[in-house]
Write a structure and sequence with these properties.
2 copies of one chain form a homodimer. Chain A has about 230 residues and is of the alpha+beta class. Chain A has helices at about 110-120, 125-145, 150-165, 180-185, 190-200, 220-225, and strands at about 20, 25, 35-40, 45, 55-60, 65-70, 75-80, 85, 100, 105-110, 170-175, 205-210, 210-215. In chain A, strands 1, 2, 3, 5, 8 and 10 form a 6-stranded antiparallel β-sheet that branches. In chain A, strands 4-9-6-7 form a 4-stranded antiparallel β-sheet. In chain A, strand 12 (about 205-210) and strand 13 form a beta hairpin. Chain A starts with 18 loop residues before the first strand and ends with a helix. The interface of A and B includes residues 72, 126, 138 and 226 of A. Chain A binds a DNA duplex (30 and 30 nucleotides) through helix 5.
Chain lengths: ~230, ~230
DNA sequence: CGACCATTTGATATGGATCAAGCGATGTGG
DNA sequence: CCACATCGCTTGATCCATATCAAATGGTCG
């Protein structure tokens, strides 16, 4: 599916179609991005693996998962993107992952060409593109390291990462399901659930509700962070 | 340990010290790199994690592993670099991984600044830097996907990758030990060994010697490649 | 030849997967 | 407003792939 005129490619696998919002620009962050703000409903695809990467995206609100699947359906989530994060900027001209909105999300969409040409004029923009690529590389490297740890360690690492990125102090509101976490950490939903209750019993965390995690003992979590 | 005058940083954890060779230039590949060709003995460190990334490296002969370790010693090899491969080009100014020579290797070493300034003058060079970064990203993504597969699948994927990169037809001479493979695939040495003999029994491969693998049935391997 | 190191093979243990059931919120229609 | 379906999550019982521990084999080099 190729993108038409001014709208990025996406499949409507979900009830609601993406809703164009009035043009907007990001206030801060890597690029002075000016583009269309679009609304993606929960579980809606933003782009698919091996589609042309003609657009770059920035999360305004909501959350996004980028993933690849093996042909038997196993899914590996490579990254979660949260408000302020830029994603979909591929070096090659093709997307390596698929991306979906985890919750209803507002996403700023910019033509890749616009950024590239801007970078050609302004070395500062080029610099920001490198910074982004570097962040991505570092994230993937850390994630590879995570995938050799045991379940407790993976989850501790995950919670600390999320706390770092979302946290209002030690309160973390997870936008994603247990299954998403499982596919991110290379475990099963059941193991995620069991390990979280285990951490709760050890008083490292509290779980007022299933998606609301309170870090009670960062020291304990950090020692699991290996 | 900071680099002195004209020599890159490295620790002599191994008997032999790196031997400067006469200056050389790469015949082909990403950069028209002109730099010092250096000799690194087996197991010698080329650079360490969190050291300043002032140099970029290219394998002329031999093989290199890039890895990170958890503080209890578990090691994750992020990548193997083979003749023709460029490595150590970090986006940030610090190395994320350590790098060691797997076998005696000749490595071309170039000042990072030289490449960056060259890239500023020649957009073609800048393009090549992006290509490199992209390759690295894609490799890491594929590697993350690999780490959710089972042992047979991981090893099949590994063998096909190596065949792709080294192979004289279907003959693969592995430069690395079983332990290196294990740390690359997130398995143990014993599992590597067992799975290889299993693949041999299934006549997917032959093992004339432990480091010499013959791909007898690519179809079978590909079907494991998921 | 003998020491050393890498690899293979065997026996057993175990962490996490799988299969299956129960539970608590949320929402919908009668 | 309540009965009921649905969905996401938790918990339990069992299984299995891979790890672990241990010993044997084989290849290499002084």
């Amino acid at each position: 599916m190729l993108p038409t005129a001014s709208c990025p490619s996406h499949q409507t696998t979900s009830p609601r179609a993406p809703q164009p919002l009035p043009p907007a620009h990001s206030l801060s962050g890597p690029f002075e991005m000016v583009g269309a703000a679009m609304n993606f409903g929960r579980n809606m695809e933003i782009y698919g693996e091996s589609e042309p990467a003609d657009y770059v995206y920035k999360v305004v609100s909501g959350a996004v998962r980028a993933y690849r699947t093996l042909h038997d359906g196993r899914r590996q989530i490579a990254a979660f993107y949260l408000p302020g994060d830029t994603f979909g900027l591929e070096v090659d001209s093709t997307h390596v992952c698929s991306a979906e909105a985890i919750t209803d999300s507002i996403i700023l969409v910019v033509k890749r060409r616009a950024i590239v040409s801007q970078a050609n004029r302004d070395p500062k923009i080029a610099q920001q593109m490198w910074t982004l690529a570097g962040q991505e590389l570092q994230r993937f490297q850390s994630h590879m390291l995570l995938l050799v740890k045991n379940a407790q360690e993976r989850i501790a690492t995950f919670l600390l990462e999320m706390a770092d990125r979302i946290a209002t102090s030690d309160e973390v509101h997870l936008p994603m399901s247990r299954q998403d976490i499982a596919d991110y950490l290379g475990l099963t939903m059941e193991t995620i659930s069991r390990t979280l209750t285990q951490l709760e019993n050890e008083e490292a965390i509290a779980l007022p509700t299933s998606r609301h995690v309170v870090l009670r003992n960062r020291t304990a979590l950090n020692s699991l962070n290996a």
